């Protein structure tokens, strides 16, 4: 029995000694386990007194005669009855010893000691051996006491100065230097000239001065039960659509070009919690589809550490909309390999306002919205794909896909538009070191009502088709461990046929685009993007990403002349903490 107590003390000494080697290791986690509600789940067996006394070492399923401590455990059980096991009849001898477990084991030994003393069954030789061991290990025991005092002092200090027992702060800072240039006089055609008169328009020149932008994100991740998460993001930046403003091309946008003139504002605000196999997400602000669904582009989907361009992050045709941000999203996992997403998100700018604006209804269900579903299938460990359907409606849509062509983004010249979008996305890692991703999609846009409320500009029953596809290959750990070299590109969302209308004068005029030459409406030439970037870490908290991407036939206005392609070079530095 006495040796059992000494054995438990030795195990505790080892656990505490490990902490002394790495003073900061797991201390915060242990504090949170002691105070955080999740500890109630982790230590439920202890709280319910569910440790069971072991009468034979053979009762422990994970202890075999070949284990180095088998004889010691057998002696403690047979001679002293001083071992308890977990409810599943395991001893978990290779796991760290917690203070709860030490208390449970010590209690079992003390009970056994009391019984042996009452029976006058304590072996005097054991007492003498224990005295000798205590003398031999006197210095170690004194050091152990000092370590315990030191650990308690550190724990008390952290408890007094910790940020929160429920909230974790995750920060990200992006610095970016970028420059755009073309090979000739500028970008062929302008949005206004093409929209207004149906001709090729003039070259659109822009300043090729180098720009420096930044973005700061502070994410507060809070858990109340250990399984849920409340996300509050504070964000500031100075590059709001800076590359689009400079070039006149929506597809030129950088992935991280959020901007508030570096004024701090609330961005993400949503709460996620599980109910059995169902995960529920409720969003109050900036809840987007990439927050609640797998986009199947694991190495490029992050705006801070993934693709430098907005267009290459994921399938913009289905995952981007000008009408989302507030609402509800559900994910149900049937089995490990199959799950289903469903969502309804209203436009954040109108969801909180029940009053009509410019004759258009608002509110959570009356204004712009995004709704749909995605089926996720993973037939192999290294291969998975998603089938996506999204329906959107926006009363004043001029940014339908955000990175599409001007006609694709705004097919009805600012009129109300709904769209049915279909997408197929996949990712495949055939072997270590290489990953392939691809997506494709089509959307059918439908006019709703009248442009500017004018019955003469009826766009009901008018529709247009938009298509996109993309493929990327990622080379992992190339030269630098943790690095990703990505090469990809594809067709940007482009309009292929939009039903035309006439204005009150009987001509296409300023209200609807025309193909040049001919009638009807569509992008003159499809717009494509190609991108190469190399993201590599500098230590644990810094990543540097040099990149280059080119947009062929920007805004789908190219006429097979030289100098109309748009080239953009970027060096991005990302700090995470």
* Oligomer designation: single chain
Number of E-type strands: 20
Which blocks of ≥5 consecutive residues have pLDDT under 50? 1-49, 188-203, 502-520, 558-563
The strand order across the widest sheet is: 3-6-7-8-9-10-11-12-13-14-15-16-17-18-19-20
Helix content: 10-25%
Work out the radius of gyration: 32 Å
Which descriptors would you attach to this protein?
577 residues, alpha+beta, 16-stranded antiparallel β-barrel, two-stranded antiparallel sheet, 14 helices, 23% helix, 35% strand, elongated, disordered N terminus
Structure characterization notes:
By secondary structure, the protein is of the alpha+beta class. 23% of the residues lie in helices and 35% in strands. It has helices at residues 2-21, 27-35, 38-42, 44-47, 70-80, 99-118, 124-136, 138-161, 191-197, 242-247, 289-292, 316-319, 348-351, 406-409; strands spanning 52-53, 84-85, 167-182, 187-188, 203-204, 211-222, 229-237, 265-275, 278-287, 325-335, 338-347, 369-380, 383-394, 416-431, 434-448, 463-476, 484-498, 528-538, 542-552, 566-576. Strands 3-6-7-8-9-10-11-12-13-14-15-16-17-18-19-20 form a 16-stranded antiparallel beta barrel. The protein has a two-stranded antiparallel sheet with strand order 1-2. A hairpin with a 3-residue loop joins strand 18 and strand 19 (542-552). The longest helix has 24 residues, at 138-161.
């Amino acid at each position: 029995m006495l040796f059992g107590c000494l054995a438990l003390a030795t195990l505790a000494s080892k656990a505490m000694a490990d902490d002394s080697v790495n003073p900061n290791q797991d201390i915060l986690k242990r504090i949170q386990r002691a105070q955080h509600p999740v500890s109630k789940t982790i230590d439920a067996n202890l709280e319910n007194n569910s440790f069971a006394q072991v009468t034979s070492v053979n009762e422990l399923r994970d202890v075999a005669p070949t284990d180095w401590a088998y004889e010691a455990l057998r002696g403690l059980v047979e001679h002293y009855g001083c071992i308890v096991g977990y409810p599943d009849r395991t001893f978990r001898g290779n796991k760290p010893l917690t203070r709860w477990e030490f208390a449970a084991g010590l209690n079992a030994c003390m009970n056994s000691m009391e019984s042996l003393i009452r029976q006058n069954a304590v072996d005097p030789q054991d007492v003498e051996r224990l005295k000798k061991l205590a003398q031999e290990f006197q210095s170690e025991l004194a050091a152990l006491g000092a370590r315990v005092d030191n650990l308690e002092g550190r724990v008390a200090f952290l408890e007094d100065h910790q940020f929160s027992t429920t909230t974790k702060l995750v920060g990200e800072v992006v610095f970016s230097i970028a420059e755009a240039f073309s090979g000739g006089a500028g970008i062929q055609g302008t949005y206004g000239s093409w929209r207004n008169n149906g001709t090729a328009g003039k070259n659109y020149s822009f300043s090729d001065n180098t720009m420096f932008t930044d973005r700061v994100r502070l994410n507060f991740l809070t858990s109340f039960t250990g399984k849920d998460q409340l996300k509050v993001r504070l964000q500031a930046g100075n590059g709001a659509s800076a590359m689009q403003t400079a070039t006149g091309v929506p597809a030129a946008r950088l992935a991280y070009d959020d901007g508030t003139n570096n004024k701090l504002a609330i961005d993400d605000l949503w709460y996620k919690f599980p109910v059995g196999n169902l995960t529920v997400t409720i969003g109050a602000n900036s809840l987007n589809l990439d927050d609640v669904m797998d986009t199947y582009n694991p190495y490029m989907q992050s705006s801070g550490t993934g693709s430098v361009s907005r267009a290459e992050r994921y399938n913009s045709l289905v995952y981007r909309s000008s009408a989302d941000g507030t609402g509800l999203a559900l994910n149900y996992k049937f089995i490990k390999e199959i799950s289903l997403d469903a969502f309804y998100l209203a436009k954040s700018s109108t969801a909180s306002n029940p009053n009509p604006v410019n004759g258009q209804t608002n509110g959570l269900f009356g204004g712009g919205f995004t709704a749909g579903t995605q089926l996720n299938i993973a037939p192999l460990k290294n291969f998975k794909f998603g089938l996506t359907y999204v329906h959107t409606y926006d009363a004043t849509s001029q940014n339908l896909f955000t990175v599409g062509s001007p006609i694709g983004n705004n097919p009805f010249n600012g009129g109300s538009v709904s769209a049915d979008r279909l997408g197929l996305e996949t990712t495949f890692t055939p072997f270590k070191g290489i990953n392939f991703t691809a997506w494709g999609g089509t959307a059918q846009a439908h006019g709703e009502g009248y442009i500017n409320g004018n019955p003469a500009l009826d766009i009901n029953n008018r529709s247009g088709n938009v298509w996109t596809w993309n493929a990327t290959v990622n080379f992992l750990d190339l030269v630098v461990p943790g690095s990703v070299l990505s090469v990809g590109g594809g067709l940007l969302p482009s309009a292929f046929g939009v039903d035309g209308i006439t204005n009150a004068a009987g001509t296409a005029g300023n209200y609807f685009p025309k193909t040049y030459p001919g009638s009807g409406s569509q992008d003159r030439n499809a717009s494509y993007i190609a991108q190469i970037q190399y993201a590599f870490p500098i230590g644990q908290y810094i990543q540097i990403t040099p990149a280059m991407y080119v947009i062929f036939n920007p805004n789908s206005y190219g006429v097979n002349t030289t100098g109309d392609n748009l080239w953009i070079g970027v060096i991005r530095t990302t700090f995470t903490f």
